[in-house]
Automatic annotation (TrEMBL):
The keyword Membrane applies. GO terms for cellular component: membrane. Belongs to the L6 tetraspanin family. It is found in: Membrane. This is Transmembrane 4 L6 family member 18. Its main location: membrane. It is a multi-pass membrane protein. The chain crosses the membrane at residues 7-28, 48-70, 91-116, 159-182. It holds the Pfam family L6_membrane. Keywords: Membrane, Transmembrane, Transmembrane helix.
Amino acid sequence: MRSRKCGYCLSSLLIPLALWSIIVNILLYFPNGQTSYASSNKLANYVWYFEGICFSGVMMLVVAAVLLVLENDSKYTCCQSENCSKKYTTLLSMIFSALGIAFSGYCLVISALGLVQGPYCRTLNGWEYAFEDTAGRFLIDSSMWVWCLEPVHGVEWNIILFSILVTLSGLQVIICFIRLVIQLSRILCASYSVIIQPGII
Protein backbone atom coordinates (compact mmCIF):
# COMPACT_ATOMS: atom_id res chain seq x y z
CA MET A 1 0.00 0.00 0.00
CA ARG A 2 2.84 2.38 0.83
CA SER A 3 4.55 1.74 -2.53
CA ARG A 4 1.21 2.30 -4.28
CA LYS A 5 0.80 5.71 -2.63
CA CYS A 6 4.42 6.55 -3.47
CA GLY A 7 3.82 5.58 -7.10
CA TYR A 8 0.67 7.71 -7.21
CA CYS A 9 2.55 10.76 -5.88
CA LEU A 10 5.37 10.27 -8.37
CA SER A 11 2.93 9.97 -11.26
CA SER A 12 1.19 13.16 -10.12
CA LEU A 13 4.52 15.03 -10.22
CA LEU A 14 4.88 14.19 -13.91
CA ILE A 15 1.90 16.39 -14.80
CA PRO A 16 3.30 19.82 -13.73
CA LEU A 17 6.71 18.86 -15.14
CA ALA A 18 5.09 18.06 -18.50
CA LEU A 19 3.09 21.30 -18.54
CA TRP A 20 6.20 23.36 -17.75
CA SER A 21 8.09 21.56 -20.52
CA ILE A 22 5.42 22.60 -23.02
CA ILE A 23 5.54 26.23 -21.86
CA VAL A 24 9.34 26.42 -21.90
CA ASN A 25 9.57 24.85 -25.36
CA ILE A 26 7.01 27.34 -26.72
CA LEU A 27 9.03 30.24 -25.29
CA LEU A 28 12.06 29.07 -27.28
CA TYR A 29 10.21 30.05 -30.45
CA PHE A 30 9.90 33.67 -29.34
CA PRO A 31 13.27 35.15 -28.27
CA ASN A 32 12.57 38.32 -26.26
CA GLY A 33 8.88 37.79 -26.97
CA GLN A 34 9.30 38.47 -30.71
CA THR A 35 7.65 36.32 -33.37
CA SER A 36 9.76 37.51 -36.30
CA TYR A 37 12.59 35.02 -35.71
CA ALA A 38 10.29 31.99 -35.87
CA SER A 39 8.48 33.25 -38.96
CA SER A 40 11.77 33.87 -40.77
CA ASN A 41 13.24 30.53 -39.62
CA LYS A 42 16.06 32.15 -37.66
CA LEU A 43 15.97 29.79 -34.71
CA ALA A 44 18.34 27.00 -33.69
CA ASN A 45 17.52 23.73 -35.43
CA TYR A 46 17.08 21.82 -32.15
CA VAL A 47 14.16 24.09 -31.29
CA TRP A 48 12.21 22.48 -34.13
CA TYR A 49 12.47 18.96 -32.68
CA PHE A 50 9.44 19.73 -30.44
CA GLU A 51 11.15 17.84 -27.63
CA GLY A 52 9.46 19.78 -24.84
CA ILE A 53 6.05 20.08 -26.51
CA CYS A 54 5.53 16.55 -27.81
CA PHE A 55 7.81 14.16 -25.96
CA SER A 56 8.43 15.67 -22.53
CA GLY A 57 5.06 17.40 -22.71
CA VAL A 58 2.03 15.81 -24.39
CA MET A 59 3.38 12.24 -24.42
CA MET A 60 4.38 12.50 -20.75
CA LEU A 61 0.88 13.75 -19.90
CA VAL A 62 -0.51 10.59 -21.52
CA VAL A 63 1.98 8.43 -19.60
CA ALA A 64 1.14 10.18 -16.32
CA ALA A 65 -2.61 9.78 -16.90
CA VAL A 66 -2.28 6.04 -17.56
CA LEU A 67 -0.02 5.53 -14.54
CA LEU A 68 -2.44 7.41 -12.29
CA VAL A 69 -5.31 5.21 -13.46
CA LEU A 70 -3.25 2.09 -12.82
CA GLU A 71 -2.30 3.31 -9.34
CA ASN A 72 -5.91 4.11 -8.43
CA ASP A 73 -7.03 2.39 -5.25
CA SER A 74 -10.25 1.26 -6.87
CA LYS A 75 -10.42 -2.44 -7.66
CA TYR A 76 -9.58 -2.66 -11.32
CA THR A 77 -10.12 -6.09 -12.87
CA CYS A 78 -9.08 -7.08 -16.36
CA CYS A 79 -9.74 -10.79 -15.92
CA GLN A 80 -11.53 -13.20 -13.62
CA SER A 81 -8.97 -13.39 -10.80
CA GLU A 82 -7.62 -10.51 -8.72
CA ASN A 83 -4.13 -11.98 -8.91
CA CYS A 84 -4.32 -11.96 -12.69
CA SER A 85 -5.46 -8.33 -12.71
CA LYS A 86 -2.49 -7.35 -10.53
CA LYS A 87 -0.15 -9.02 -12.99
CA TYR A 88 -1.54 -7.14 -15.96
CA THR A 89 -1.55 -3.85 -14.02
CA THR A 90 2.08 -4.34 -13.03
CA LEU A 91 3.09 -5.15 -16.60
CA LEU A 92 1.28 -2.07 -17.95
CA SER A 93 2.86 0.14 -15.31
CA MET A 94 6.30 -1.12 -16.23
CA ILE A 95 5.67 -0.59 -19.95
CA PHE A 96 4.44 2.99 -19.51
CA SER A 97 7.21 3.82 -17.04
CA ALA A 98 9.72 2.62 -19.65
CA LEU A 99 7.96 4.73 -22.30
CA GLY A 100 8.20 7.70 -19.96
CA ILE A 101 11.95 7.17 -19.66
CA ALA A 102 12.22 7.02 -23.47
CA PHE A 103 10.14 10.16 -24.07
CA SER A 104 11.80 12.29 -21.39
CA GLY A 105 15.21 10.87 -22.28
CA TYR A 106 14.73 12.05 -25.86
CA CYS A 107 13.92 15.56 -24.61
CA LEU A 108 16.93 15.47 -22.28
CA VAL A 109 19.34 14.54 -25.08
CA ILE A 110 17.98 17.00 -27.65
CA SER A 111 17.86 19.85 -25.11
CA ALA A 112 21.44 19.13 -24.03
CA LEU A 113 22.57 19.17 -27.67
CA GLY A 114 20.76 22.47 -28.23
CA LEU A 115 22.37 23.90 -25.12
CA VAL A 116 25.88 22.93 -26.21
CA GLN A 117 25.34 24.02 -29.82
CA GLY A 118 24.20 27.51 -28.81
CA PRO A 119 21.77 29.86 -30.51
CA TYR A 120 21.44 30.67 -34.17
CA CYS A 121 22.19 34.39 -34.24
CA ARG A 122 23.49 37.27 -36.34
CA THR A 123 27.22 37.92 -35.99
CA LEU A 124 29.59 40.15 -37.92
CA ASN A 125 29.68 37.38 -40.52
CA GLY A 126 25.90 37.08 -40.83
CA TRP A 127 23.47 34.53 -39.40
CA GLU A 128 25.26 31.46 -38.08
CA TYR A 129 25.87 29.20 -35.08
CA ALA A 130 28.48 31.39 -33.47
CA PHE A 131 29.41 28.90 -30.74
CA GLU A 132 29.13 25.63 -32.63
CA ASP A 133 32.87 24.97 -32.58
CA THR A 134 33.47 26.03 -28.96
CA ALA A 135 32.44 22.63 -27.46
CA GLY A 136 30.12 24.44 -25.05
CA ARG A 137 32.87 26.66 -23.66
CA PHE A 138 30.64 29.71 -24.16
CA LEU A 139 28.36 28.40 -21.40
CA ILE A 140 30.90 29.35 -18.75
CA ASP A 141 32.59 32.23 -20.61
CA SER A 142 30.07 35.05 -20.83
CA SER A 143 32.60 37.30 -22.58
CA MET A 144 31.93 35.32 -25.76
CA TRP A 145 28.24 36.21 -25.76
CA VAL A 146 28.92 39.54 -27.46
CA TRP A 147 29.55 37.59 -30.67
CA CYS A 148 25.78 37.37 -31.08
CA LEU A 149 24.42 40.75 -32.15
CA GLU A 150 20.83 39.63 -32.73
CA PRO A 151 18.53 38.64 -31.10
CA VAL A 152 19.45 40.86 -28.19
CA HIS A 153 20.07 38.66 -25.14
CA GLY A 154 19.49 35.67 -27.42
CA VAL A 155 22.32 33.72 -25.82
CA GLU A 156 20.88 34.09 -22.33
CA TRP A 157 17.42 33.18 -23.65
CA ASN A 158 18.80 30.04 -25.26
CA ILE A 159 20.89 28.95 -22.25
CA ILE A 160 18.19 29.52 -19.63
CA LEU A 161 15.35 27.81 -21.49
CA PHE A 162 17.34 24.82 -22.71
CA SER A 163 18.78 24.42 -19.21
CA ILE A 164 15.26 24.38 -17.77
CA LEU A 165 14.22 21.76 -20.32
CA VAL A 166 17.23 19.63 -19.39
CA THR A 167 16.27 19.89 -15.72
CA LEU A 168 12.58 19.14 -16.26
CA SER A 169 13.20 16.16 -18.53
CA GLY A 170 15.94 14.91 -16.21
CA LEU A 171 13.48 14.92 -13.31
CA GLN A 172 10.98 13.02 -15.46
CA VAL A 173 13.60 10.38 -16.25
CA ILE A 174 14.36 9.98 -12.54
CA ILE A 175 10.67 9.74 -11.59
CA CYS A 176 9.90 7.17 -14.28
CA PHE A 177 12.98 5.16 -13.32
CA ILE A 178 11.92 5.15 -9.65
CA ARG A 179 8.45 4.02 -10.73
CA LEU A 180 10.01 1.20 -12.73
CA VAL A 181 12.00 0.13 -9.67
CA ILE A 182 8.80 0.18 -7.60
CA GLN A 183 7.09 -2.11 -10.08
CA LEU A 184 10.06 -4.48 -10.08
CA SER A 185 10.00 -4.54 -6.27
CA ARG A 186 6.33 -5.49 -6.38
CA ILE A 187 7.17 -8.40 -8.64
CA LEU A 188 10.07 -9.57 -6.51
CA CYS A 189 8.60 -8.92 -3.07
CA ALA A 190 4.82 -9.21 -3.45
CA SER A 191 2.83 -12.38 -3.15
CA TYR A 192 2.00 -12.54 -6.86
CA SER A 193 4.22 -13.31 -9.82
CA VAL A 194 4.20 -11.29 -13.02
CA ILE A 195 4.32 -14.51 -15.03
CA ILE A 196 0.82 -15.68 -15.76
CA GLN A 197 0.45 -19.35 -15.05
CA PRO A 198 -1.89 -21.40 -17.28
CA GLY A 199 -5.07 -22.56 -15.60
CA ILE A 200 -5.16 -19.68 -13.04
CA ILE A 201 -7.65 -17.56 -14.96
